[in-house]
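Notes, Module 5: Reading structure tokens.

Key idea: the token line is not a picture. It is a compressed description, and you learn to read it the same way you learned to read a sequence, by spotting repeated patterns. We will look at two proteins. The first is printed below with its tokens.
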Amino acid sequence: MTAELTVSVLGTGIMGAAMARNLAQAGHTVRVWNRTRAKAEPLTADGARVTATPAEAVEGADAVLTMLYDGAAALDTMRQAAPALRPGTAWIQSTTAGLDATADLAAFAADHALRFYDAPVLGTRQPAEAGQLTVLAAGPLDGRDTVTPVFDAVGARTVWTGEDGAAASATRLKLVANSWVIAATNAAGEALALARALGVEPGGFFEVIAGGPLDMGYLHAKAALVLEDRLTPPQFAVGTAAKDARLIVEAGERHGLRLDVAAAGAARLARAAERGHADEDMAAAYFASFDPDHTPHP
């Protein structure tokens, strides 16, 4: 039987709330904090305790899990938590932060004698709520007995990528995976937009590729969100995808790569966000194809 842990979840957006809920359902003591407290309050029904500050959330915790918007938000939150952090506490850093920010977060962990686990996840709202995420993790062997029950509660699979969280090997893998997800989503949206402009029924396109190597379950899932006007609540929001796309482009530039598709995808997502779709599913990048004064219903 898994020992009960006290886990602090900092950030209760789409992913963090689902992860906190699954941790509580697995029998762990869960404390949560969110910048907007009202977004965390529903978790009290699942047994989590909502706290007023990050420091209150992490006091006496066995593990701290951060799932915030970006690396800057994660670092700011952990600085607020710092007075109550115990040396040796496991820090599960699941925010998609990018390479430079992950290095900053690892440095903070070292300064405060925390066991740092670079642990982004693959998955969106539905697998998060079902506890079926894939956890990508890098971090020290000493301490894995603490973090493994956390990973088991929130995910169906954990892929260990290394023993040094500061090397960000898990974040590197996450950026590669997200580059494919974002490219596929943008390509699906453009195909739907072109079909509409040319008077082609989307069903005809799906029929042509059915059963072949170009057919993808992901294409059908994202297309359905657009065609059936089910963009809210988002599985993965446009605004967050735009941030991740920027991180991917920056990572490429840092290593001497020109990622033309990723750069175009980042610009496309940013345009969709600017036009009011930031809080809709990332499939809403579809609308970036159209003149904002003549945006059609799909």
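Here is the second protein, with the sequence above and the tokens below, as before.
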Amino acid sequence: MKRTVLTAAAALLALAALQGRAAADGTPAPGAPAAWQPAGTVLPGAATTADAPPMKPGTTYRDTIEPGGTRFYGIALDAAASAAVSAFALPPAGSRVTYGDGIELKLQSADGTDCDTRNAHFQDNGDARPIGTAVSRLITGDHGDACQDANQYTLQVHRTSDGASDPDAWPLELRYVSEPGLREGANESPSPVTTASAPPTPLTAGTPRQAAGGPSFDTAAAVRTGIWKDRVLPGETRFYKVPVGWGQQATVFTDFSSAQATGTGTYVGSGVRLTAYSPVRELIDGDDHAYQGTPVSLVEQLAPVAYGNRAANDEKVQRVRYAGWYYFAVTVHPDVAKAVTGPVPVTLRVDVQGTAEPGPVYDGDARAAGIGVDAHDVASANGTADGSDGHSGALRFLAFAALGAGTVLLLTLAAWYAAARLRPARAGDATVRQPGYGPPGSW
């Protein structure tokens, strides 16, 4: 009996260690939706532009924002580099949110000129998920355009909130990316590249592989052309990143498979969602669909990557102006838990077409800013965030399995131990109770 108890204890300790490792990797205990944990340097935003704290390029910051609140951050820009600044609000799971809730970003020059404005709203009710985008100051080469001068600029982040929505402050994660200017004499065509007119076709050839989507940009699973499978819980958003070079075009189909129905017949509008983001975390496009446990498919086809896309009139083309990691967020609405039991099986059909071309001749290190990918990035895109050959995915699977096995083991041992304690002693029984078993006073 003692050996059995020790074995059970060891098993439970192993389970606890597994769950602790999972938490350290940003993955919650099995059965709980993954959550984006804000990272970076704490940077309290100011209430006015005069007190806006400075941001540095290549740095991630975190802050909080109240309902209806506005925060200001300062950015000093020269007359050569373009800049992109992103902000994401991270409402806790279960937060009350409505269609118009979200955040609105504005980048302004010192004289109050609006350089760029972008909004990100939930566009449905009850789907508390990471939400945000980026604003940019782009150098056009035309000094007659606004916001081209070296000056002090300000990022404004405003949280829109319905009166009945979550009254608590939300964490914010912010990041500033500086894109080097072009080397003097570089001849870069300003002409944008448009998408093909033919509708996209899903990739069907190839053996599916396992992916382990992460709850944030930093923990996103790297996936390349191929078929990838994962599972997403109701109330969860998981991120995947795809390496896309200059001249290449990415298409991602996301199939939300059938799941075990609860029998309630619950119909969830905007039950599943697919959202695409650029390498600087700018929202490109998104789509959603109702879900009630039967198969649904969503697709995002991006424009071919070109430096000249920044001059496009179509905003979806304009935002595909960098080579680099493009992010795809897969979301399952919390109310889907009323329609199905457990996670929703998801298949991502990733198709990056075209041969990578030489990029623009930058006057600086664009890769250090997160712009551009190479053959190594493509080769190491194996469904995990860290190129660990599926270790993260295996850990996640084992955590689900270990939780079930550990629970059964606990219940079995508890029943066994109770039966042994209550069994009457028989004459001539060779088993002798050893000190240390049973409550004090029974030894």
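Summary for the second protein:
- Residues 1-26, 389-443 have pLDDT under 50 and may be disordered.
- The first helix runs from residue 2 to 24.
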